[in-house]
What we know:
mainly alpha
Amino acid sequence: MTGKANCWDNAVAESFFKNLKSELVYQQDFQTQAMAKQAVFEYIEVWYNRQRRHSALGYLSPFDYYDRQLQHVA
Length: 74
């Protein structure tokens, strides 16, 4: 993103899209673009953010991690 030889800029995005493709896109045959959009939305909002545990977040989902951070602030 910032130029040649700076491979770490895209690491997070590339990891996310690798997971999206392997866990969703390559597992289904979408009949319409609307079906694909809905499936991607559900993957991100229902599965990835609320249920899928992430090792970088102490094996919490992003939703639970964020919720825990808010509890520590209050």
